[in-house]
Amino acid sequence: MLTRPMTEADAGEVSALILRSDDRVLVHYHSPEMLAGFREHATPESLIEQLGRKEVFVVEDAGRIVATGGLGWFDDPDVPRGEQAAVYEPAADRRVSNLFVAVDLIGRGIGRQLLDHLVRLAEAEGARRLHVGSSRNAVSFYERAGFRIAPEPPSEIPEITWLLLILDARG
């Protein structure tokens, strides 16, 4: 399996992967209103726009995209990538976003492989803390990777659990 940066050409396939997860998994954990917001965020157009402000990766197996996930900045995730070096300190907090695995492949270690890639990238860039806003179904996945429920959630988004990984404590 190959982990690589997402390209604009991947947007349709990545969108379909996320929407299948919404339809088959997240529907059991979230309200219709939350799912509508998730779906709006997962259109090919929205995914292409996200490439301008965060690093997005895909995991590919035999030509099929089987997972996706992003690494962005935590404090102001909408700063364009070209301006981020001037805005953020090297040790600024980072944020994992939109980590999804193809529904038929959940539980095979693909999500962990991608999450480990994102953690290593954040560490290499000097981040000290990594945040993730998780759907209810994935909280235990993040906890197994060392994340803990954030003592002070950064927002009160309904139906989302915020978790935190202290990177410099992993040593």
Keywords summarizing the entry:
alpha+beta, 171 residues, 33% helix, Aminopeptidase
Order of helices and strands: EHHHEEHEHEHEE
The main sheet orders its strands as 1-2-3-4-5-7-6
Helical run tally? 6
Number of strands: 7
CATH architecture: 3-Layer(aba) Sandwich
Largest sheet: 7 strands, mixed
Description:
By secondary structure, the protein is α+β, with helices and mostly antiparallel strands. The chain has one domain: Gcn5-related N-acetyltransferase (GNAT) (Aminopeptidase, 3-Layer(aba) Sandwich), CATH 3.40.630. It is built from six helices and seven strands, in the order E-H-H-H-E-E-H-E-H-E-H-E-E. The chain has helices at 11-24, 32-41, 44-50, 84-87, 110-124, 139-144; strands spanning 2-5, 55-61, 64-73, 94-101, 129-134, 148-149, 161-166. A seven-stranded mixed sheet has the order 1-2-3-4-5-7-6. Helix 1 (11-24) packs across helix 3.
SSE blueprint and pairings:
Blueprint: E1 2-5, H1 11-24, H2 32-41, H3 44-50, E2 55-61, E3 64-73, H4 84-87, E4 94-101, H5 110-124, E5 129-134, H6 139-144, E6 148-149, E7 161-166
Parallel strand pairs: 4-5
Antiparallel strand pairs: 1-2, 2-3, 3-4, 5-7, 6-7
